[in-house]
Amino acid sequence: MEKNVTKSFDVIDRDEKVIGSSIHIRFYPLSIESGKGVYLYDSDGNEYLDFNAGAAVAIAGYRHPKIVKAVQDQVEKLSHHCFTLHSNPVVVELAEKLIQITPGDWAKKVWFGLSGSDANETIYKLVPYATKRRRIMSFMAAYHGQTMGAYTLSGHTAQTEIVGLPNVVKVPYAYCYRCPFGKDLECPACGLQCVDFIENQVMTTICPPEDTSCLLIEPIQSDGGDIPPPPEFLKGLKELCEKHSILFAVDEVKHGFGRTGKMFGIECFDIEPDIITMAKPMANGMPLSACVAPSEILDSLVAGHLLTTGGHPVSVAASLATLEVIKEENLAQNAAEMGDYLIKRLSEIQEERSLIGDVRGKGLIIGVELVRDQKTKEPASLECAKVMYRAWELGLILIYVGVHSNTIEITPPLIINKEHCDKAVDIINQSIKDVEEGKISDEKIARFAGW
Fold this sequence. Notes:
Elements: H1 6-18, E1 32-36, E2 39-42, E3 47-50, H2 53-56, H3 65-77, H4 89-101, E4 108-113, H5 116-131, E5 135-139, H6 148-153, E6 168-171, H7 193-205, E7 212-217, H8 231-243, E8 247-251, E9 275-278, E10 289-294, H9 295-298, H10 313-328, H11 331-350, E11 356-362, E12 365-370, H12 381-393, E13 396-397, E14 399-401, E15 407-410, H13 418-436, H14 442-445
Parallel strand pairs: 3-13, 5-6, 5-7, 7-8, 8-9
Antiparallel strand pairs: 1-2, 2-3, 4-10, 9-10, 11-12, 12-15, 14-15
């Protein structure tokens, strides 16, 4: 039965008149009024199962009582202070906890901001300054943010219209389903050409190691297509960095705080990073980010990278409560179990649906790549947009990612259960089936082109 979305369309019409399109991506006509647990409710009162979690943010779901109370209590006590100018006990407490829980046995300090962009900006700005090495290496299809330094670190196709700064060198990620070197062999039988290329081509020509300060990588490339690399790739890169005294930095903005089944995604690969950035889920939706790095990096430039509302006490209180919820409710373990279950169920429907080319993921960050032909792997970009729209019609919130805009991203709250998983997979299966049968017109999605 068709939903009544009259009020939602009214909000979207008003939105388009007064808010610039540079701030958003739209996949379907959804105007959210409220949320509870794993469900969202639109302006017309329709209910949706949320398997996006607000871009992988709401790991404990919506309106979690413990987090709500922490926010309320902090607002009543102190609604704002500028940490740039004065210290605060809750901010110091969170920094101490982050130093304890982040992987790596080295002298750590913490920087606080508001978003993944400004956390990765910390790397762009301070690491070359502190090390006196000008260059940074990052990856094609990576997404590290929208401020200019973070934008420059990124390699996603959506970020090619504006030219970034010149000191970042992009190298290929280990996207084994679409190997950038055309290999058909499983890793490590392929010879890890992706690592060899960096060492023997990139470092000997355009990015000399003696002038390279750090390598920044997502443990699972998320907006590039939810791509978990083979463990050998990350281990090879870490060894390469150690060989040349290059800092190994990981962007945990989307993976941190239990989503992969571990507290941080890099722990899935048994690697200790030198720098870690985090944001999205760390305060379950309140704006907060952090960079955990060696003191010689974060102490290198007094007042060199600060934000008036960075380390906001209300967001910090929400983060402390979120950490308690993750531990008390075993959210990382649940993410591992539900992720395995979802991948199993999705792999089963892959046999029925010709559009599904690959199912991959780690914990509750999962990608379902759609292709028009399973042999040629031609990206099914338009079809993927239609699947998103149809899933919304059927009551499931998803988005798509990938350099070809053809990968369904699944990043639900970490509180989901098997019933939620079964419902989501059934809707995904039905949505793909309806698209394969030509039931979703081009005109229907024309206004919601995504990215």
